[in-house]
Design brief:
The protein has 295 residues and is α+β, with helices and mostly antiparallel strands. The protein is 15% helix and 39% strand. The N terminus and C terminus are likely disordered.
Length: 295
């Protein structure tokens, strides 16, 4: 066997376990029941996911959700029975490290201006009702809701989110209230509440972000419901940033914000075709190097 063939065989054998892992891995697939926004005490928007069309389609047609380059609409994988299934592993890649990707999917609602805008003068509530049939199993997987000022031209430094996560410290499933700054590349936690003990009796969780009229401070609450829609637990979370010691806030440099639901995954193996293509490129490179040495 030639030297090149030996290297190629070793390279192919080395990548086969990775390909098998990619094929057999169980995806994280959070399920959302409803998403709605209340402005000045009146319901502005509600999606019960019963139209049969994946976002950006929704109650207002094919452009219900903002579909700009930062919207992350890839990874919406099913809308049946009044519920939306998301597979964030199939969404937008946010960070590539070796052969693993951190991925995101989400639906962003509300205009920057006009009747559907959410300005500092308005009182605003963002609600998300999620099933607990699929909860995070590793740190980095999550689902939840956001205030966000990101769009095609603005990277955004005000992303306030409330999400269900797996704690990297305690290992508990819990609700995390946090601020993400895509300009400074930081993520800071304001509050965390474990819901692990409530999961056996809970089938859904409602997440709520609110702000008062004339204020830019954001507050968070959550409520867990059983199969009969009875509350089995809930609470509010501290909104004081654990680093700056100031309240989580929006409209810092922007005059608008939007409501968003989202899900993320982490450590997601790149799809088999991509991995196979990477392998072929590597083998081709080896072949070229061998031919060059022989010339």
């Amino acid at each position: 066997m030639s030297h090149f063939k030996s290297i190629a065989l070793v390279s192919a054998i080395a990548i086969l376990p990775f390909l098998s892992m990619s094929a057999s891995a169980t995806p994280f697939q959070p399920v959302m029941d409803e998403f709605w926004i209340v402005k000045n005490g009146t319901e502005l928007f509600r999606d019960s996911f019963n139209g049969g069309g994946l976002p950006p389609s929704g109650p207002d047609g094919a452009t219900t959700y903002f579909s700009g380059s930062q919207a992350g609409l890839g990874g919406m994988t099913g809308e049946t029975g009044g519920k939306l299934t998301m597979t964030p592993a199939l969404g937008s890649q946010t960070l590539i490290t070796g052969v693993f990707a951190d991925t995101f999917t989400g639906g962003t609602r509300a205009n920057i201006t006009g009747a559907n805008s959410l300005s500092i003068s308005n009182s605003v509530e963002i609600h998300g009702l999620f099933d607990l049939s699929s909860v995070p199993t590793i740190t980095g997987q999550q689902f939840g809701i956001r205030f966000t000022d990101r769009n095609n031209t603005n990277t955004g430094d005000d992303i306030i989110q409330l999400s269900v996560v797996k704690s990297g410290i305690s290992g508990d499933i819990g609700v995390r209230f946090a601020e993400l700054d895509f300009v400074a590349d930081t993520s800071e936690t304001a509050g965390f509440a474990s819901i692990t003990s409530l999961l056996p009796s809970a089938s859904q969780i409602e997440l709520v972000l609110t702000k008062a009229a004339g204020s830019n401070n954001v507050f968070a609450s959550y409520n867990l419901l059983d199969a009969f829609n009875n509350s089995v637990g809930g609470g509010t979370l501290d909104n004081i940033n654990n680093v700056t010691l100031s309240a989580l806030s929006i409209y810092n440099g922007e005059t608008y914000t939007r409501g968003q639901f989202f899900a993320t995954d982490t450590g997601v193996p790149i799809s088999e075709p991509a991995a196979f293509a990477t392998m072929l490129i590597g083998l081709a490179g080896l072949g070229y190097a061998r031919r060059k040495r022989a010339a």
